[in-house]
Design brief:
The structure holds 2 protein chains of 2 kinds. By secondary structure, chain A is mainly alpha-helical. Chain A contains 14 helices and no strands. The mean pLDDT of chain A is 91. Chain B folds into 2 domains: 222 residues, P-loop containing nucleotide triphosphate hydrolases (Rossmann fold, 3-Layer(aba) Sandwich); 129 residues, RNA polymerase II/Efflux pump adaptor protein, barrel-sandwich hybrid domain (OB fold (Dihydrolipoamide Acetyltransferase, E2P)). Chain B has 8 helices and 21 strands. Classes of the chains: A mainly alpha, B alpha+beta.
C-alpha cells in the first residue's frame, strides 16, 4: 500500500469516529431550545433527580476511594497466595453488564445474610442506599484499577528509604506514597464519580424507578421517554454529556500536571 | 568497637542462595561488599539494613541484636543506587525528612556543615529535586542520609552512575564527611576501583558466599580465590596443565612455557590456576632483567591500551597453545612497545598467586 493511501485511510477512520461523537452532541443541541431547557431545569422532578444523582454518586465515589486505596496498594505491592485470582475477581464489575450486576445484587439480598442486613441494618432494595451501593460497586472496581496502576508506577525503593529514616510502613505510605499518588487519586475519584453518576442498569435493578424517590438523572431520562416528555430527557442527556466532558477535561489536566 | 556484626546469614530466594555470610565492621570504618551482579551483595546489604528477613543467621548493630528489628528502629540510613530522592519534596525538605520523621528538631549547624562540605548550599532552595543533575542528586541524598547521625550508613552502588572525575570528587567529599562524622559505612560495589576509593575493608562475595574479607592491601597481596583475584582486577589468570614439586616452588606447565610458582605454607595440593597482576609484569626496560632467568617469556604485542601515563599491553605467544597476558608499561620508562613488536617479560616469583583446584568457583573458570 502506498504511504499516501495508508495515511489517508488513517485520517478517514479518525474523521468517522469524530463525526459520530459530534453528531451525538449536535443532535442533542439541535433538538432543544432555550425554553425547553428552562422548563426542564425549573421542573421539581428534574431538580430532585439532579440532587439525588449528585448526592449518591459523590457518596459512592468517595466511599469507593476509601476501600480502593488500601486494596489497590495491597495488590500493587504485596505478594500473597491467590493474588492474581483476587485481582481478576475485582475486574468483574468493570466488565459485567450493569443490569446483570444489579440483578446479582438484588439476589444477594434474597439470601439469609442479605435479608438480615435488610431487616436489621439498612434497607437497600428500592431505597436510596441501594443506589449508593450499586454505584459504589461500579466506582470501586474502576478506582481500584486506576489506583493499582498508580501505585505500581511509584518506586517501592522510596518507601524502603523512608523506612530507614524512621518511618513505620504506615507512615512511609502516608508521607511518601500517598502524596506521590495524588494525581492518580484524583483521576480515580473523577472516573469513579463519572461512572457512578451515569449508571442506569445496576441502579434500576436494585432501587427501581420510583419517581421522586429513586429517580436519578439516568432514570429520569428513561421515565421522561416513557411518559413522552422528550425535551426533559434530552436536557438531562445533555447534562450527563457535559459531566462526561468535564470529567475528561479534569483527567487531561491531571495528566498534564503529572 | 564493633558497630556491625553479621553471623551466618542465610537466605534462599528462588534459585539464589546466600550461604552463611559472616562479617563485621568497626565503628567509623567503611566496609565494601564487592561482587559481580547476582553475587548477593545487595541482598546482604538489605538484610543488614532490615529490608529483608533472613532464613537463618543473626545481625548485631551497636552491640544489640537487630535480627528481627524493623529498619525504622535500627537507627541506620540507606542510600540506594538510584538515590531515591522524594520527588514531591523540595531539596531542603528531602534533607530534613529523616529529622521530621524521627520527630527531632532540625540541627541547623549540622545541616550547614553537611551542605558546605558537599557543596550543595545553593541547591537548598530548589523546589523540585527532579531538576538536579546526577551528581547533585547524589550529594543531596548523602546529606539526607547523614542529617540524623546513623549508627550505620548503607550505600548501594550509589556512585556507579557518575563519570570517573565526579565519582572521585564525590568519594573524596564522602571520605572527608566520614572523618568528620565518624559514620560507620557499609557499601556495595561491583567495581574494585570504587571500593579502593572508599573502603577500609573489602568483603568479596561470589554466588552468594563470602570469599574473603580483609583490608584492600591484604586482598591484593593474597587473593584467596580466582574470583577475588578477578574482582580485584587481575587479568592474568592462567589454567595449568600440570605441576611438579621443585625446590621451594612448583614447576608448572603452561603449554609453551614453564612457570615457577611459589609454595605457600597452607597449600599442599598442586595449583590448578595461577595469576598475576598486569602491573607486576613489566616488559624488560632496555632488555635488562638482571641475572634471574626463570619465568621469562617472549611474547608479541597484539594490542595496547593507554590509561593516563600507563600503557596496558596485550601480549601473546606465537605458537599454539596460545597464551595471552597483560602487562603494564609506565611512560616514564620510555616509549611503549608497538603492536607487532616482540617483547620479553618476566613475572617475579613472589608476585605469582596460585590456587588449588578445590578453590570455590574453579569449575566455572
Amino acid at each position: 500500500m502506498a504511504p499516501g493511501c495508508f495515511r489517508a485511510g488513517l485520517f478517514v477512520s479518525l474523521g468517522i469516529a469524530t463525526t459520530v461523537v459530534l453528531a451525538l452532541l449536535g443532535s442533542q443541541i439541535a433538538y432543544i431550545d432555550r425554553e425547553s431547557i428552562f422548563a426542564a431545569i425549573s421542573s421539581p422532578s428534574v431538580r430532585s433527580a439532579i440532587r439525588l444523582s449528585l448526592l449518591t454518586s459523590s457518596t459512592a465515589a468517595v466511599l469507593a476511594l476509601v476501600f480502593a486505596v488500601p486494596s489497590a496498594y495491597l495488590l500493587a505491592r504485596a505478594r500473597f497466595p491467590g493474588r492474581s485470582l483476587v485481582d481478576a475477581l475485582l475486574d468483574v464489575p468493570v466488565i459485567m453488564s450493569p443490569v446483570a450486576l444489579g440483578l446479582a445484587l438484588l439476589l444477594v439480598f434474597r439470601t439469609s445474610p442479605g435479608a438480615l442486613v435488610e431487616r436489621h441494618v439498612v434497607r437497600f432494595v428500592f431505597e436510596v442506599p441501594g443506589i449508593v451501593l450499586a454505584q459504589f460497586i461500579l466506582a470501586a472496581a474502576l478506582e481500584i484499577r486506576v489506583l493499582k496502576a498508580t501505585f505500581e508506577e511509584i518506586n517501592p525503593r522510596l518507601e524502603q528509604v523512608a523506612r530507614c529514616m524512621g518511618c513505620s510502613p504506615g507512615r512511609a505510605f502516608l508521607h511518601v506514597t500517598l502524596p506521590l499518588a495524588r494525581p492518580g487519586l484524583l483521576a480515580a475519584l473523577v472516573l469513579g464519580w463519572a461512572r457512578a453518576i451515569g449508571d442506569f442498569g445496576a441502579t434500576v435493578m436494585i432501587a427501581g424507578a420510583v419517581p421522586g424517590k429513586t429517580e436519578t438523572v439516568p432514570i429520569a431520562i428513561y421515565l421522561g421517554l416513557a411518559s413522552l416528555r422528550i425535551e426533559h430527557s434530552v436536557v438531562l442527556t445533555l447534562l450527563l454529556t457535559l459531566i462526561a466532558i468535564s470529567a475528561l477535561l479534569v483527567l487531561r489536566w491531571l495528566g498534564a500536571r503529572q | 568497637m564493633t558497630m556491625l556484626r553479621a553471623e551466618s546469614l542465610r537466605l534462599r530466594q528462588g534459585n539464589f542462595l546466600l550461604r552463611d555470610v559472616s562479617l563485621d565492621c568497626d565503628q567509623g570504618q567503611c566496609l565494601a561488599l564487592l561482587g559481580h551482579s547476582g553475587s548477593g551483595k545487595t541482598t546482604c546489604l538489605e538484610i543488614l539494613a532490615g529490608l529483608r528477613r533472613v532464613d537463618s543467621g543473626r545481625v548485631w548493630i551497636g552491640g544489640r541484636e537487630a535480627t528481627n528489628v524493623p529498619p525504622e528502629q535500627r537507627e541506620v540510613s540507606y542510600l540506594p543506587q538510584d538515590v531515591a530522592l522524594f520527588p514531591h519534596l523540595s531539596v531542603r525538605e528531602n534533607i530534613l525528612f529523616p529529622a521530621r520523621m524521627r520527630r527531632l528538631a532540625p540541627d541547623g549547624h549540622r545541616l550547614r556543615r553537611l551542605c558546605e562540605m558537599l557543596e550543595i548550599v545553593p541547591l537548598l532552595d530548589r523546589p523540585d529535586v527532579r531538576s538536579l543533575s546526577g551528581g547533585e542528586a547524589q550529594r543531596v541524598a548523602i546529606a539526607r542520609a547523614l542529617i540524623v547521625p546513623p549508627r550505620v550508613l548503607f550505600l548501594d552502588e550509589c556512585f556507579g552512575a557518575l563519570d570517573a572525575p565526579r565519582r572521585r570528587r564525590l568519594a573524596r567529599q564522602f571520605r572527608d564527611l566520614r572523618q568528620m562524622t565518624g559514620t560507620t559505612t557499609v557499601m556495595v560495589s561491583h567495581d574494585a576501583e570504587d571500593a579502593f576509593l572508599m573502603a577500609d575493608r573489602l568483603a568479596v562475595l561470589h554466588q552468594g558466599s563470602l570469599q574473603q574479607i580483609g583490608e584492600p592491601g591484604e586482598l591484593l597481596r593474597q587473593p584467596a580465590t580466582v574470583e577475588v583475584a578477578e574482582l580485584l582486577g587481575m587479568q592474568n589468570i592462567l589454567p595449568l596443565r600440570s605441576c611438579q614439586p621443585g625446590d621451594g616452588h612448583w614447576r608448572c606447565d603452561l603449554g609453551n612455557f614453564e612457570l615457577l610458582v611459589p609454595l605457600t605454607p597452607n597449600r599442599f595440593t598442586a595449583p590448578s590456576h595461577v595469576g598475576f597482576f598486569s602491573w607486576d609484569v613489566s616488559p624488560a626496560a632496555a632488555g635488562n632483567f638482571g641475572e634471574q632467568q626463570s619465568n621469562r617469556l617472549r611474547l608479541r604485542v597484539v594490542d595496547s591500551e593507554r590509561r593516563g601515563h600507563e600503557v596496558r599491553l596485550r601480549l601473546r605467544t606465537d605458537q599454539p597453545p596460545s597464551l595471552v597476558i597483560e602487562a603494564s608499561w609506565h611512560e616514564s620508562l620510555g616509549p611503549a612497545a608497538a603492536r607487532g613488536d616482540w617483547v620479553e617479560v618476566q613475572v617475579p616469583l613472589a608476585k605469582i598467586h596460585a590456587w588449588p583446584a578445590t578453590s570455590d568457583g574453579l569449575e566455572k573458570t
